[in-house]
Write a structure and sequence with these properties.
Helix content is 78%, strand content 0%. It is mainly alpha-helical.
Length: 313
């Protein structure tokens, strides 16, 4: 019932977005909005699935894959490109060149982390989270250093990579990301029941006969694919995953992945649509989708932290 209501609300929002100001008349504006709508669907689905799966592996509802440094590595790459080639790097690499480089870097980063740090079975996840956090801070510091070496104009260009953005997305980029997210999403839904067992914890999962290390590695690989595809398409999502995952748990009343993964995807797309509508018709392009989402989701993250701090030990 709740899924039906969310789906109906999402369809209404999508029609409102496509028709408001275009009258559904075929042309440049409608085709542009269709591409942005597709980017919201692909990006929102990827963010939701990556966040829910990561929280299952980490067994923590206030974490997102960003703690593993995927987004920090992406931003450092963009900063180094601008430092080395200037704003001409965007033209030299082209739309698909930059995306291919970003995908390769984030997937390589993920494989390196798993290969180097995930050897010891017990407590290795906690160690990987800690090292991922340290590496994220290190990459962020290097990016900030690089930002001090570039011109104000180049800095402004670089800032456009730091937040969620639906501008300048080509059909080719959208198609590549859609294929990656759909393939990874199909595998995630197929293994939803297995990962329900994994969510019980390592010891319980092993006692029930689950090959826990293998499932964790597979889950982290899919998370890397989701993070790489969505970040290279619409940019870093920061706190959005925390908000989406926790709303999905509340809507479905539990942690069963067959329900939370689709519910989270619907909520994420709805949130992007609402933010886009507000930017266009309420703020008249006086702000951006990324700023609005960071404001809402950052406030929600703070609320979760304060609520946990208020609980008795």
């Amino acid at each position: 019932m709740r899924h039906g209501l969310v789906l109906a609300a999402l369809a209404a929002l999508a029609l409102l977005y496509l028709g408001w100001g275009t009258g559904f008349a075929p042309g440049f504006l409608l085709s542009r909005r269709l591409i942005r709508l597709g980017a919201m669907a692909v990006g929102g689905t990827g963010i939701a699935m990556a966040s829910i799966l990561f929280q299952t592996v980490a067994r923590n509802r206030i974490l997102t894959p960003a703690i593993m440094g995927y987004e920090a590595a992406y931003l450092l790459l963009q900063a180094l490109l601008v430092l080395a080639l200037g704003t001409a790097s965007l033209r030299l690499l082209g739309d698909l060149g930059n995306m291919a480089l970003s995908l390769a870097l984030m997937l390589g980063w993920s494989l390196a982390l798993h290969g180097l740090l995930f050897r010891d079975e017990r407590n290795s996840m906690h160690r990987m989270l800690l090292i991922g956090l340290v590496l994220t801070l290190t990459l962020t510091s290097i990016t900030q250093f690089v930002q001090l070496q570039i011109s104000p104009g180049e800095f402004a260009v670089l800032q456009s990579f730091a937040l969620i953005s639906l501008d300048g997305i080509s059909p080719n980029r959208l198609a590549i990301s859609a294929v990656a997210v759909l393939a990874a999403g199909a595998i995630a839904l197929r293994r939803a029941a297995i990962w329900d067992v994994m969510a019980l914890g390592r010891d319980q999962a092993l006692s029930l006969g689950l090959d826990h290390p293998r499932e964790v590695r597979l889950c982290l690989t899919l998370i890397a694919v989701f993070a790489a595809a969505t970040t290279s398409l619409i940019g870093p999502s920061a706190f959005m995953g925390i908000f989406i995952a926790n709303i999905a748990y509340a809507l479905t009343g539990g942690f069963r992945h067959r329900r939370t993964l689709p519910a989270g995807s619907l909520v994420a797309v709805a949130m992007l649509l609402i933010a886009e509508l507000m930017v266009q018709h309420l703020f008249r392009f006086g702000t951006t989708v990324g700023i609005l989402i960071n404001l809402i989701c950052g406030g929600y993250f703070l609320f979760l932290i304060l609520r946990r701090a208020g609980r008795p030990a």
